[in-house]
Amino acid sequence: MTSTVLFTGFPGFIGRRLVRRWAAVHPDKHWVFLVQERLRERADEDLREIESEQPAFAGKWETVVGDVTDSRLGFGGAYDDLAARVTECWHLAAVYDLAVPEEVARRVNVDGTRHVLDFCAACESFERLFYISTCYVSGDRTGRVLETELDAGQGFKNHYESTKFHAEVAVQDRRDRVPATIFRPAVVVGDSRSGETDKYDGPYFTIRFMMRLPRLMPMVGIGSGKARLNLVPVDFLVDAMVEIGGQEASVGHVYQLADPGALTVSDLLDLISHELGKPRPLISVPGAVLEGALSLGPVRRLLEMPKETIVYANHPVAYDTQNTLGALEGTGVECPSIATYLPTLIQYVREHPEKEFLDSRKL
Prior knowledge:
This protein is α/β, with parallel strands linked by helices. It has twelve helices and 13 strands. It has helices at 13-25, 40-53, 79-85, 102-122, 159-173, 203-212, 234-245, 265-276, 287-294, 297-303, 322-328, 338-351; strands at 4-8, 30-35, 61-65, 88-91, 128-132, 143-145, 180-185, 187-189, 221-222, 231-233, 254-257, 284-285, 317-319. The strands form four sheets. A seven-stranded parallel sheet has the order 3-2-1-4-5-7-11, with helices on both faces. Strands 6-13 form a two-stranded parallel ribbon.
Protein backbone atom coordinates (compact mmCIF):
# COMPACT_ATOMS: atom_id res chain seq x y z
CA MET A 1 0.00 0.00 0.00
CA THR A 2 1.26 3.46 -0.89
CA SER A 3 2.10 5.57 2.14
CA THR A 4 -0.07 8.69 2.03
CA VAL A 5 0.59 11.77 4.16
CA LEU A 6 -2.16 14.16 5.29
CA PHE A 7 -0.57 17.54 5.92
CA THR A 8 -2.28 20.49 7.65
CA GLY A 9 -0.86 23.97 8.01
CA PHE A 10 0.36 24.39 4.43
CA PRO A 11 1.58 26.74 2.97
CA GLY A 12 2.95 28.13 6.24
CA PHE A 13 6.62 29.01 6.58
CA ILE A 14 7.55 25.95 8.62
CA GLY A 15 5.24 23.74 6.57
CA ARG A 16 6.82 24.62 3.22
CA ARG A 17 10.29 23.83 4.51
CA LEU A 18 9.17 20.65 6.24
CA VAL A 19 7.49 19.29 3.11
CA ARG A 20 10.64 19.88 1.08
CA ARG A 21 12.79 17.98 3.57
CA TRP A 22 10.37 15.13 4.33
CA ALA A 23 9.65 14.59 0.62
CA ALA A 24 13.36 14.53 -0.18
CA VAL A 25 14.00 11.89 2.48
CA HIS A 26 10.83 9.91 1.67
CA PRO A 27 10.36 10.29 -2.12
CA ASP A 28 7.84 7.44 -2.46
CA LYS A 29 5.12 9.00 -0.31
CA HIS A 30 1.91 10.50 -1.71
CA TRP A 31 0.66 13.75 -0.18
CA VAL A 32 -2.75 15.20 0.60
CA PHE A 33 -2.68 18.85 1.68
CA LEU A 34 -5.66 20.18 3.63
CA VAL A 35 -5.73 23.87 2.72
CA GLN A 36 -8.12 26.76 3.22
CA GLU A 37 -9.94 27.92 0.09
CA ARG A 38 -8.27 31.34 0.17
CA LEU A 39 -4.81 29.71 0.25
CA ARG A 40 -5.30 27.00 -2.35
CA GLU A 41 -3.78 28.93 -5.24
CA ARG A 42 -0.76 29.85 -3.15
CA ALA A 43 -0.42 26.25 -1.97
CA ASP A 44 -0.55 24.90 -5.53
CA GLU A 45 2.12 27.40 -6.61
CA ASP A 46 4.42 26.39 -3.77
CA LEU A 47 3.92 22.68 -4.46
CA ARG A 48 4.70 23.14 -8.14
CA GLU A 49 7.89 24.91 -7.09
CA ILE A 50 8.84 21.90 -4.96
CA GLU A 51 8.14 19.70 -8.00
CA SER A 52 10.61 21.75 -10.03
CA GLU A 53 13.26 21.16 -7.37
CA GLN A 54 12.42 17.50 -6.72
CA PRO A 55 11.24 15.65 -9.83
CA ALA A 56 10.30 12.60 -7.71
CA PHE A 57 7.64 14.75 -6.02
CA ALA A 58 5.81 15.37 -9.30
CA GLY A 59 2.37 13.82 -9.51
CA LYS A 60 2.44 12.68 -5.89
CA TRP A 61 0.42 15.43 -4.29
CA GLU A 62 -3.08 16.85 -4.22
CA THR A 63 -4.63 19.80 -2.43
CA VAL A 64 -8.02 19.37 -0.82
CA VAL A 65 -9.96 22.37 0.42
CA GLY A 66 -10.93 21.83 4.02
CA ASP A 67 -11.11 23.29 7.51
CA VAL A 68 -9.89 21.69 10.72
CA THR A 69 -12.69 23.40 12.67
CA ASP A 70 -15.24 21.22 10.81
CA SER A 71 -15.90 17.86 12.45
CA ARG A 72 -15.17 16.11 9.14
CA LEU A 73 -12.33 18.51 8.28
CA GLY A 74 -14.42 19.99 5.49
CA PHE A 75 -13.75 16.90 3.35
CA GLY A 76 -17.44 16.19 2.77
CA GLY A 77 -17.97 13.09 0.67
CA ALA A 78 -14.20 12.59 0.27
CA TYR A 79 -13.77 11.83 4.00
CA ASP A 80 -14.12 8.05 3.74
CA ASP A 81 -11.99 7.82 0.61
CA LEU A 82 -9.19 9.77 2.28
CA ALA A 83 -9.51 7.68 5.47
CA ALA A 84 -8.98 4.59 3.31
CA ARG A 85 -5.74 6.02 1.91
CA VAL A 86 -4.02 8.14 4.57
CA THR A 87 -1.37 6.36 6.66
CA GLU A 88 0.45 9.31 8.21
CA CYS A 89 -0.39 12.85 9.32
CA TRP A 90 1.61 15.99 10.05
CA HIS A 91 -0.65 18.36 11.98
CA LEU A 92 0.70 21.91 11.97
CA ALA A 93 -2.49 23.95 11.50
CA ALA A 94 -3.04 26.21 14.51
CA VAL A 95 -3.50 29.80 15.57
CA TYR A 96 -0.10 31.25 16.48
CA ASP A 97 -1.07 34.52 18.13
CA LEU A 98 -0.50 35.48 21.76
CA ALA A 99 -3.45 37.88 21.64
CA VAL A 100 -5.92 35.50 20.02
CA PRO A 101 -9.49 35.52 21.44
CA GLU A 102 -10.34 32.40 23.42
CA GLU A 103 -13.16 31.24 21.13
CA VAL A 104 -11.00 31.40 17.99
CA ALA A 105 -8.09 29.64 19.69
CA ARG A 106 -10.35 26.92 21.05
CA ARG A 107 -12.02 26.19 17.70
CA VAL A 108 -8.75 25.96 15.77
CA ASN A 109 -6.25 24.64 18.29
CA VAL A 110 -8.38 22.34 20.44
CA ASP A 111 -11.41 21.36 18.34
CA GLY A 112 -9.27 21.28 15.19
CA THR A 113 -6.80 18.87 16.79
CA ARG A 114 -9.60 16.65 18.05
CA HIS A 115 -11.09 16.52 14.55
CA VAL A 116 -7.71 15.52 13.13
CA LEU A 117 -7.41 12.82 15.80
CA ASP A 118 -10.87 11.52 14.91
CA PHE A 119 -9.86 11.33 11.26
CA CYS A 120 -6.60 9.53 12.08
CA ALA A 121 -8.52 7.02 14.21
CA ALA A 122 -10.89 6.41 11.28
CA CYS A 123 -8.04 5.66 8.86
CA GLU A 124 -7.87 1.99 7.92
CA SER A 125 -4.08 1.66 7.95
CA PHE A 126 -2.90 4.56 10.05
CA GLU A 127 0.72 4.47 11.24
CA ARG A 128 1.65 7.74 12.91
CA LEU A 129 0.65 11.30 13.75
CA PHE A 130 3.31 13.99 14.00
CA TYR A 131 1.86 16.72 16.15
CA ILE A 132 3.42 20.19 16.48
CA SER A 133 2.80 21.48 20.00
CA THR A 134 4.87 24.18 21.76
CA CYS A 135 7.18 24.42 24.74
CA TYR A 136 4.74 26.97 26.12
CA VAL A 137 2.16 24.36 27.09
CA SER A 138 4.11 24.72 30.34
CA GLY A 139 2.14 27.94 30.94
CA ASP A 140 3.20 29.81 34.04
CA ARG A 141 5.44 27.05 35.39
CA THR A 142 8.92 28.10 36.47
CA GLY A 143 12.17 26.19 36.75
CA ARG A 144 13.02 23.18 34.59
CA VAL A 145 10.25 21.61 32.52
CA LEU A 146 10.79 18.02 31.40
CA GLU A 147 9.70 16.54 28.08
CA THR A 148 7.86 13.84 30.03
CA GLU A 149 5.72 16.43 31.83
CA LEU A 150 2.52 18.09 30.66
CA ASP A 151 -0.19 18.65 33.26
CA ALA A 152 1.35 20.04 36.44
CA GLY A 153 -1.67 22.12 37.44
CA GLN A 154 -0.20 25.18 35.75
CA GLY A 155 -2.02 28.34 34.78
CA PHE A 156 -1.54 30.09 31.46
CA LYS A 157 -0.44 33.53 30.32
CA ASN A 158 -2.80 33.67 27.32
CA HIS A 159 -5.32 31.66 25.31
CA TYR A 160 -2.65 30.50 22.87
CA GLU A 161 -0.85 28.64 25.66
CA SER A 162 -4.00 27.21 27.25
CA THR A 163 -5.50 25.92 24.00
CA LYS A 164 -2.23 24.39 22.81
CA PHE A 165 -2.02 22.68 26.21
CA HIS A 166 -5.52 21.22 25.88
CA ALA A 167 -4.75 20.16 22.31
CA GLU A 168 -1.64 18.27 23.41
CA VAL A 169 -3.62 16.66 26.24
CA ALA A 170 -6.02 15.36 23.59
CA VAL A 171 -3.14 13.95 21.52
CA GLN A 172 -1.57 12.25 24.53
CA ASP A 173 -4.92 10.84 25.65
CA ARG A 174 -5.46 9.21 22.24
CA ARG A 175 -2.01 7.67 21.74
CA ASP A 176 -3.39 4.18 22.35
CA ARG A 177 -5.48 4.51 19.17
CA VAL A 178 -3.46 7.14 17.31
CA PRO A 179 0.32 6.56 17.62
CA ALA A 180 1.97 9.97 17.86
CA THR A 181 5.28 11.78 18.01
CA ILE A 182 4.96 15.20 19.63
CA PHE A 183 7.28 18.13 18.94
CA ARG A 184 7.38 21.19 21.20
CA PRO A 185 9.28 24.05 19.55
CA ALA A 186 10.52 27.05 21.52
CA VAL A 187 10.31 30.53 19.89
CA VAL A 188 11.04 30.00 16.18
CA VAL A 189 13.10 32.62 14.34
CA GLY A 190 14.50 32.82 10.82
CA ASP A 191 16.93 30.56 9.02
CA SER A 192 20.34 30.59 10.69
CA ARG A 193 22.10 30.55 7.31
CA SER A 194 19.99 32.96 5.23
CA GLY A 195 17.97 34.82 7.85
CA GLU A 196 14.77 34.15 5.89
CA THR A 197 11.54 34.37 7.87
CA ASP A 198 7.86 34.88 7.13
CA LYS A 199 7.03 36.99 10.15
CA TYR A 200 8.59 39.49 12.49
CA ASP A 201 7.50 38.63 16.01
CA GLY A 202 9.18 37.57 19.25
CA PRO A 203 12.72 39.06 19.33
CA TYR A 204 12.08 40.84 16.03
CA PHE A 205 9.91 43.39 17.82
CA THR A 206 12.96 44.43 19.83
CA ILE A 207 15.32 44.33 16.86
CA ARG A 208 13.10 46.54 14.73
CA PHE A 209 12.46 49.00 17.55
CA MET A 210 16.17 49.31 18.29
CA MET A 211 16.85 49.93 14.61
CA ARG A 212 14.61 52.99 14.79
CA LEU A 213 16.32 54.46 17.84
CA PRO A 214 18.83 57.30 17.39
CA ARG A 215 22.37 55.91 17.17
CA LEU A 216 23.45 56.91 20.69
CA MET A 217 20.14 56.18 22.45
CA PRO A 218 20.26 52.90 24.40
CA MET A 219 17.42 50.43 24.66
CA VAL A 220 15.91 49.98 28.13
CA GLY A 221 16.02 46.59 29.75
CA ILE A 222 12.87 44.72 30.78
CA GLY A 223 12.67 43.66 34.39
CA SER A 224 15.63 41.82 35.91
CA GLY A 225 16.82 40.44 32.56
CA LYS A 226 17.72 37.13 34.23
CA ALA A 227 15.05 35.03 32.52
CA ARG A 228 16.16 33.04 29.48
CA LEU A 229 14.48 33.57 26.12
CA ASN A 230 14.65 30.31 24.20
CA LEU A 231 15.09 30.83 20.46
CA VAL A 232 15.53 28.21 17.72
CA PRO A 233 16.16 28.85 14.01
CA VAL A 234 13.67 27.35 11.58
CA ASP A 235 16.32 25.27 9.80
CA PHE A 236 17.24 23.50 13.04
CA LEU A 237 13.56 22.96 13.80
CA VAL A 238 12.84 21.33 10.45
CA ASP A 239 16.05 19.27 10.39
CA ALA A 240 15.32 17.98 13.90
CA MET A 241 11.71 17.05 13.10
CA VAL A 242 12.74 15.19 9.94
CA GLU A 243 15.55 13.35 11.69
CA ILE A 244 13.53 12.40 14.77
CA GLY A 245 10.36 11.74 12.75
CA GLY A 246 12.24 9.15 10.73
CA GLN A 247 13.10 7.13 13.83
CA GLU A 248 10.65 4.39 14.73
CA ALA A 249 11.71 4.71 18.36
CA SER A 250 10.29 8.24 18.49
CA VAL A 251 6.68 6.98 18.47
CA GLY A 252 5.02 7.78 21.78
CA HIS A 253 7.58 10.36 22.86
CA VAL A 254 7.73 14.14 23.27
CA TYR A 255 10.62 16.27 22.02
CA GLN A 256 11.25 19.83 23.19
CA LEU A 257 13.03 21.52 20.28
CA ALA A 258 14.74 24.20 22.30
CA ASP A 259 18.20 25.68 22.76
CA PRO A 260 19.85 24.00 25.77
CA GLY A 261 22.14 27.05 26.04
CA ALA A 262 19.50 29.79 25.77
CA LEU A 263 20.73 33.28 26.64
CA THR A 264 19.28 35.50 29.34
CA VAL A 265 17.18 38.44 28.16
CA SER A 266 19.90 40.80 29.43
CA ASP A 267 22.62 39.01 27.44
CA LEU A 268 20.40 38.90 24.36
CA LEU A 269 19.73 42.67 24.53
CA ASP A 270 23.46 43.30 24.92
CA LEU A 271 24.12 41.12 21.87
CA ILE A 272 21.50 42.88 19.75
CA SER A 273 22.82 46.29 20.85
CA HIS A 274 26.33 45.30 19.86
CA GLU A 275 25.28 44.02 16.44
CA LEU A 276 23.32 47.22 15.76
CA GLY A 277 26.12 49.46 17.00
CA LYS A 278 23.95 50.86 19.81
CA PRO A 279 24.83 51.44 23.48
CA ARG A 280 23.93 48.54 25.74
CA PRO A 281 20.88 49.04 27.98
CA LEU A 282 21.72 51.11 31.05
CA ILE A 283 18.41 51.00 32.91
CA SER A 284 15.52 48.57 33.21
CA VAL A 285 11.79 49.09 33.36
CA PRO A 286 9.58 46.70 35.35
CA GLY A 287 7.69 44.41 33.02
CA ALA A 288 4.33 45.36 34.52
CA VAL A 289 5.02 49.04 33.80
CA LEU A 290 5.86 48.33 30.16
CA GLU A 291 2.81 46.09 29.77
CA GLY A 292 0.64 48.89 31.11
CA ALA A 293 2.17 51.39 28.72
CA LEU A 294 1.63 49.03 25.77
CA SER A 295 -2.05 48.84 26.68
CA LEU A 296 -2.26 52.40 25.36
CA GLY A 297 -2.81 52.60 21.61
CA PRO A 298 -0.35 55.44 20.90
CA VAL A 299 2.46 53.69 22.81
CA ARG A 300 1.75 50.36 21.15
CA ARG A 301 1.81 51.96 17.70
CA LEU A 302 5.04 53.81 18.52
CA LEU A 303 6.86 50.72 19.76
CA GLU A 304 5.16 48.32 17.31
CA MET A 305 5.22 45.72 20.07
CA PRO A 306 2.22 43.81 21.52
CA LYS A 307 1.99 43.85 25.31
CA GLU A 308 1.43 40.08 25.38
CA THR A 309 5.13 39.48 24.60
CA ILE A 310 6.51 41.31 27.65
CA VAL A 311 5.68 38.62 30.20
CA TYR A 312 8.04 36.19 28.44
CA ALA A 313 11.01 38.46 29.13
CA ASN A 314 10.59 37.89 32.87
CA HIS A 315 9.44 34.30 33.02
CA PRO A 316 12.15 32.09 34.57
CA VAL A 317 11.66 28.75 32.85
CA ALA A 318 14.09 26.29 31.26
CA TYR A 319 13.15 23.52 28.85
CA ASP A 320 14.82 20.16 29.26
CA THR A 321 15.93 18.60 25.95
CA GLN A 322 17.20 15.16 26.97
CA ASN A 323 14.90 13.27 24.59
CA THR A 324 15.84 15.59 21.74
CA LEU A 325 19.58 15.46 22.41
CA GLY A 326 19.46 11.69 22.66
CA ALA A 327 17.55 11.27 19.40
CA LEU A 328 19.86 13.67 17.55
CA GLU A 329 23.12 12.25 18.91
CA GLY A 330 25.43 11.36 16.05
CA THR A 331 23.20 12.91 13.37
CA GLY A 332 25.04 16.22 13.09
CA VAL A 333 21.81 18.11 13.82
CA GLU A 334 22.12 20.50 16.76
CA CYS A 335 20.67 23.84 17.78
CA PRO A 336 23.13 26.68 17.15
CA SER A 337 23.55 29.47 19.67
CA ILE A 338 21.73 32.70 18.76
CA ALA A 339 25.11 34.45 19.10
CA THR A 340 26.33 32.66 15.96
CA TYR A 341 23.48 33.66 13.66
CA LEU A 342 22.02 36.88 15.07
CA PRO A 343 23.99 38.98 12.53
CA THR A 344 22.32 36.98 9.75
CA LEU A 345 18.84 37.60 11.19
CA ILE A 346 19.52 41.32 11.54
CA GLN A 347 20.89 41.60 8.01
CA TYR A 348 17.72 39.96 6.67
CA VAL A 349 15.56 42.49 8.54
CA ARG A 350 17.64 45.33 7.06
CA GLU A 351 17.16 43.96 3.54
CA HIS A 352 13.46 43.14 4.05
CA PRO A 353 12.01 45.88 6.28
CA GLU A 354 8.44 44.74 5.64
CA LYS A 355 7.01 41.27 5.30
CA GLU A 356 3.75 40.19 3.67
CA PHE A 357 2.10 37.50 5.78
CA LEU A 358 -0.39 34.89 4.63
CA ASP A 359 -2.55 35.84 7.57
CA SER A 360 -1.95 37.68 10.83
CA ARG A 361 -3.40 34.82 12.85
CA LYS A 362 -3.13 31.52 10.97
CA LEU A 363 0.26 30.59 9.54
